[in-house]
Structure of GMP synthase [glutamine-hydrolyzing]:
Amino acid sequence: DWQMGSYIDEAVAKIREQVGDEEVILGLSGGVDSSVAAALIHRAIGDQLTCVFVDHGLLRLNEGDMVMDMFAGKLHAKVIRVDASGQFMGKLAGVTDPERKRKIIGAEFVEVFQAEASKLKNAKWLAQGTIYPDVVESGGTKTKKATTIKSHHNVGGLPETLGLKLLEPLRELFKDEVRALGVALGLPADMVYRHPFPGPGLGVRILGEVKKDFADLLRRADAIFIEELRNTIDPATGKSWYALTSQAFAVFLPVKSVGVMGDGRTYDYVVALRAVQTSDFMTADWAELPYALLKRTSGRIINEVRGINRVTYDVSSKPPATIEWE
Ligand code: XMP
């Protein structure tokens, strides 16, 4: 609409004025905030922006390709994709404690990003998709209980070590405004209205030790669940079950159980499906998904993902359970 149009014009003018002819680096994660920040800054300064996309091997199915298709393909932005999955898996080998896994993934992320950023010698700015609630939180005005229970890893803490000026064009916006801005900038609604995804990614959805094989199985199971949620419309509201849930995903349980397939016995891994409804992620109810949807999802996962022979549904609310399993 016209209001968003004039907002974009103002924001673009402000970025141009701040940055002048200097170069900017941005860490693209595939999440909403960094994506919208990238699209806005690219609109303002084009090739003066370089995005660095670190693939830690713990992303969702095809996520890396989708990010590249959108930003490099459609927007023609400069994007460096760093495939660091081997490096991350190496660091995570043998580690089972959830908080240690988070710390390792966070630290490795900073390291890989910095190594890449330091190659861009002309960059003077680091852009981040910080939004208003993040600003308020780090100012200590609002206390977020979840952070005391789990140390959230995000792309924070980079500027001092890199010696770059900080560019944060979304600092005054709430999440719904960021989404509207993203749509107005031409990002697909599917991307802008995606469920949140944690910084450590599948690293906290594979219980215990993270292994590439486990991540590969989990990615496929998760993609089936999400596809079924998107394709199942609730007749009462006309909305998909993806839209009716706040967050939904599969969790890999490194436990084997016995099954039967054809004439043979199987002894394979288990996934749990998790879907919650919440307004603030501080408390959450497990979603009362239709049985038919659960049935289709479980049938497809067991048939299509060789290596998984059992699917369970998590019926725990928060509190006392958390949304993620780790
Ligand atoms: P929990 O599991 O604490 O999750 O109920 C609440 C919300 O936070 C997300 N979450 C994270 N996000 N880094 C993130 O960026 C993390 O380490 C992390 N841990 C949990 C979770 O996905 C949910 O939306």
About this structure: Residues 102, 146, 149-150, 152-154, 196, 198-200, 247, 281, 318, 322-324 surround xanthosine-5'-monophosphate (CB under 6 Å). Residues 98-117 form the longest helix (20 residues). The chain has two domains: 2-192, 205-313.
